[in-house]
Amino acid sequence: MSRVPSIQWFGVLCGIALVGCSNATPPQPKPEPPKAVAVAPVEPAKVEPAAEPAPQAVPVAAAPAATPETKQPAAGQVAAGATPADPLAALRQTLAAAADEDARVLVIDDIAKLGQNAKGALADLIKATADVDPRTRWHATRAIGMVGEDALSAMPVLLGLLADTDPMVATQSAAAIGLIREDDGRKDIPAADAQVYASAVDPLIKSTTHPDARVRRSAVRTLRRLAPSVEQLAPLLSKQLADVDPSVVMPALQTLADMDDDAVPFLLEALNQPKSRYWATIALAEIGPEAAPAVDSLARLAAEGETEERMQALLALAAIGEKAATASPVMVQALESDNNSVHFPAAFALGSVRATDADAALDKAAAGDDPFLAEVACWARARIHPDDKALVDEAVKRLRKGLHSDRPNERAAATSGLSDLAEKLEEPVRRELAGEFADLLSDPVPDVGIGGGGALIRLGATAVDTLRERLADPALRGRVLEILGAIGPAATPAVDDMIKSLDDADPAVRGDAAVALAAIGPDAAAAVPSLTKMLVDEAAPAARFPAAYALGRIGPAAKPALEQLRALTESPDEVMATVALWSTLKISPEDRSLFAQAIPALRKAVRAEREIVRLEAAVALGEIGAAAESAIPVLELVSEEDPSKPVRAAAAAALAKIRGEIQDGNRGG
Fold first, then answer.
1. Residue 626, Cα to own-chain centre: how many angstroms?
2. Distance CA 214, CA 385 (A)
3. What is the CATH number of the domain that holds 182?
4. CB-based contacts of 93: which residues, under 8 Å, 6+ apart?
5. How far apart are the two ends of the chain, measured CA to CA in Å?
6. Most distant CA atoms of the chain, gap in Å
7. Which pLDDT tens digit goes with each residue over 641-669?
8. Cα dihedral 210/216/222/226 (nearest 10)
9. Considering the domain boundaries, does residue 220 fall inside one?
10. What domain count does the chain have?
11. pTM, two decimal places
């Protein structure tokens, strides 16, 4: 999602996380009372894994166990007595005879491949949704959706599964409802069927505030497919977004913001509801340019709303950027009003939309008595006229002074404003700014330090020499390594410094250094001996994960570490074994001997808590290709419902590659 450059009142988070497949519930935002906030990039909620969730407290309809004298047929094979010409009958018999969860999941996926032709197995699939094993439940739920409109009779079951204790089941339930409606392409639906679809609206709206982001995304997407009437949607949506507890509302807003134009119709309706409009403006601000259809509604709110609503509406217009330029008269009016609270967001919005009709109002604000407003106004003028060197130089002068203000919000604003203008500055000035931003890393206010880190990342290669110098400070070393890692390959000149940090006395710093080297990739090959040594350092087990990950990112040049990595693939630590498997595949991608071991581990890793783990697992499955066919169901889910866009894109690319190889194989290619 693109973003207009902005003075971010609450900074840029640039921490790097590595691996983890914990089943812990992800942390939720701390509740705060509603107040006007700045353009706040809302972080996606962490995804809790669904590898081994708590069993659902529902009646269990377990499949009959195979008798000792009956050999268990593999998924897709014809059970004894079945007619090969009737594949569904064969699969149903195989499902009935399946004695363990893995076998049930595989045969359910084979049934799902039949799509509408699997209607005859609907009863079997419904029965499987009550299985004690959550994987069986969600695969069966997915298969019901694949049947399409012929599975409409299963709607009550699917609605019940929205409340399943396992989020993967709830996610697939919402998705299945959407697939059934999508397959039912009728515009004029019989009253009875229409009532069935209508019965799903309320439960789905309730699911938009589910604790798990995947469930929320799936619910919103399906609601759009159901296209409920405004009369039906408005009161329900207003009630959900009017919840007074931000710990409930904010996750829903995070999901809506991440869904771009899919969410805009819901947020437009929420803008019309007094109890939900404030929250809707926050989500629209995060959506940014994709929220352009809301410009007129936001402009009205910026002109007529309560003070906090006006502030947030102005910030939402700022986030939309130049597509919101038609609202500039409202912004000018706010800047010139007697309400001091709206002056800052109005000036910021005028700069963000590049309002060419705002020069007089901004000149007056820049010459005023409020130094903070003057800084914002100067930044806005420079942004509107980026080729006017005098305006840019004046803005830089003012903002550099603001870096030393006693007011933390002014320091943060000045940091982001300078970062925004830095691209137009000459290299010597950019290098000076790198030093000033680096000084902010020690700021007593954490958000200011975070903003300084974000500004250094945006400077990229220009900041590397300054960051190398700051590695000498033990108090900053970990944070500096994180920033270098975020800069990525442009930080290659710091590789030798990163390698030295692999010997740091603090295991956490050693791990940070390994992650930074991983971000460099193949150009960090000189680190292979040190990283290999870390693999066998049992005194610091936490550092072994990032070391293995870094070796995988380095790729074939890390072949000297293969022996140690292969040994770790047998580790009793499931996470360590998975990372080692992934790394071995990246170093030696032609080695098919590990596929059977790697694919189940990667299927689980693609549902892990950490974003980087899910992304790398998806990429690895795509690189394996057709042999990873069993991962298609989970990749489908991740490609649509993962909270991270890069992960969704990686999963979609993996699906395309796996399916392409399967199709080529079927053609004999």
1. 26
2. 42
3. 1.25.10.10
4. 73, 78, 79, 81, 82
5. 38
6. 91
7. 888 889 999 999 999 999 999 988 765 44
8. 60
9. yes
10. 1
11. 0.70
